[in-house]
Amino acid sequence: MRQVLLVTFRLIVLALWGLVPALAFSAGNPPGGADGGYASPIAGVGSDAGEALNALQAKEDAIRQRASTVTGDAELIELDSLSRRIVADVDRLVASSLQPELERTRAQLDVLGAAPVAGARPETPAVAQQRDVLTAQQTRLDAQVRQAQGIRGDLANVDAQIARLLREHLKDQLALRTDSILSAAFWAPMVHPEAADYQSLRAFGMQIEKQTQSMWRPGRILATTVLLLAALACATVGASLLERTTGWICFRRLPEGRLRRSAFAISTVFATLATTMVAIHLVSVAIGSQRSLSPALQTFTDELVKHIVNCALVLALGRAFLCTAHPSWRLPAIADPVAQALKSFPRTLAALLLFSGAIEQINRAVDTSLQLTIFTRGLVALIVALTIGASLLHANRVRTVIAAAGNSPEGRSALAGLIHAAVCVVVVGALAALVFGYISVARFLTYELVWFDIVLCSLYFLVMLTRDVCESLFSPAHASGNTIKHLFGLKNAHLAQISTMLTGIFRSALIVAAVIALLTGGLGTTPADLIDSILEVLGGDRLRALNIVPAHIFSALLTAGVGVYLVRSVRRWFDRELLPKTEMSPGMRASLLTLFANIGYVLVVLQSLSVLGVRWHNLAWIVSALSVGIGFGLQEIVKNFISGIILLAERPVKVGDMISIAGIEGDIRRISVRATQIQLADKSTVIVPNSQLISQNVRNVTMGNTTQGIASLALTFALDVDPEQVRDILLDAYGDHPSVLAHPAPTVMFTQLTPEGITLTVTGHVRSPRIAADTKSELLFAILKRLRAADIPLSTPRTVLVHAPQGGLPDGLGAASRPGAGRSRQGTATSAPALSRDRRCVSGNNEFM
């Protein structure tokens, strides 16, 4: 037990202290003897290198054939191990046989010298024959060396393919159930380790020791010491100096405003990452300048450097997010006591992640047993979950103390609360998975949680930075905004529109990139891997078969949720930020928003079906069924839908118009896909199908003249009145009313002359059609008051009494058959009243019972 712990501790110390990938210095072949302790399958081949190469070529072909059909992880791991052994055999064959023999052949040819030229003294037949033999041997050896290099390159491609297959099988491995962390069997590898694991770890440790000893060989001690001290200084003092320098630049050189804070946060992240990469490069120079890495060490260090960069990113994002050194520059709304309480959390989490990454890469490099691998994964998941859970509990305890002291709580948004709740649920789920024996699930949840935090924090900082950069760049208060304004002849409103548009575009692109990173990436993913994943997602063919599986259903639901959220967010951004800064009318803005939302939802549905694995040619039966349904029951819905699109495109009516249709008059409040909502004068709403607005006659009051209405009154006076006096009274009444416009001026027209009197029509314009009815009512009150003051009556009705003889009317002479009976003076048909028998009073345009 003590020996195992000592070996493991030595491996971790060596990995974290002196073993980082020498990417620029390990491109050559691994040295002979660094084979990991396995026997060469061609150890018996001595003289005939061609047969050995042919045997290795056959094994390489067999591995490629098996890799194209294998499905199990155990077989993939076995093929990966065989591939590495063949690469080691090829390197050993080239180093021990082909290369020395090729050098001897070249030396012998150099001894013979160049072939004699024409006209010179010919050489002896024996020398000429020996020259031909050596030349042929050199050609054969060159071809064999090229063949060996080809085998090595093909096996590198096979290793990459196997790595991709192992990553794809991760989802299947999540369902593996093992012993619980509460059981003794889980902790058995610590107490009773397997001999094979111990030997593998010891052999790997010997490789690390050899690599470390090459750093401290005589003649390299001073250079190695200087490089390592420089790397240490760069990672500590250099990071602090670079952070202070960038902070000074942000404070002194950037314009005032929010840009300083967001740029300072990004500069903190940049300083940590830059100094970390420089330190890694210095250590790689110290390690790999004299001795190349073996395949096992090369794989280990390649993966370890990714974890080092990710851990540095975790530390940098945490420091920038909390910003405990400069609380006034903190971007998120976090109380200072909470930030101080979480100050050590980024460093602790980064150190634990680095430790866990080194442990897992050691397991992969030495190919440990499944039991030891599960144990290390469970231990790492337990430590990370407990660390995150403890930080959450500590932060909540500090918030409780702040609230109890009566201080104002943090201004947390609903999204921040949702993220906090989701993190708590994931931590509890990881601990529960460890208790119930789902170690792979716990490890997946903890690593994905850390990756989610990295992506979310990066997205937050980049979104804030792009917003502040766009606002500062196009602000009229800054020199850049004024330069752009005068250069292109823009207005301040145009600058605000450009800034808002660019902010929205960058924000949408960052959100999409973050979603792809969450779905395709993971802890230990490099930027190159993320770019390849994004290109694969955007360019992949997702519509090859109608193959619906649970994973596709989950992806489709996630895509639909994200798509709906994006459509709503962009629509809200259009409605609140971009469109109000344009000169569009409210009706036009509402139509554009509705059209954008409809198109966006259609695209979301199509993308969800694509992720689900639906092929369009397999939907022919659905289209056929829909055509039958449209022919019977869906035709009205389709007709209204098409009518709604026509209304949004042609815009004969729009939101805000006052229309009249089928006796309904009101203002249009909304045009949806199926129907249009019309608000009446009593504030009630009538829902009219869109097809009626297309197929029926619609009176649009505000279409031709959107700002003025008409208040027109027709009054009948006696024949003996003075028309000019009445005209003056009517014009004065219209002119004194505040709602009647002076331009165009009110007019009075003599419209009718009858025996009952004269009819004058007075017309005036008001500022809106919607106040015409109220204005006419107020004008009638004012006109009647003025007419009474001037002693001018309206037309007095003449009364005509019609008495029927007793016993009723003669046969054939009913009221309807008598000329003029039952009709008013204007010829409108009336019916006999029931109050008095065949008696009515007809007066002008009115009928009185």
From TrEMBL:
Location within or outside the cell:
Cell membrane
Predominant location? membrane
Membrane topology term reads: Multi-pass membrane protein
Which key words tag this protein in UniProt?
A: Cell membrane, Membrane, Signal, Transmembrane, Transmembrane helix
- Check the UniProt entry and state the signal peptide residues, or none: 1-26
Q: Name one GO cellular component term.
A: plasma membrane
Mechanosensitive ion channel MscS domain boundaries: 637-702
Chain ranges of the DUF3772 domain: 146-207
- What positions does the domain Mechanosensitive ion channel MscS C-terminal occupy? 716-793
What this protein is called in its record is: Small-conductance mechanosensitive channel
The species this protein belongs to is Paraburkholderia bannensis
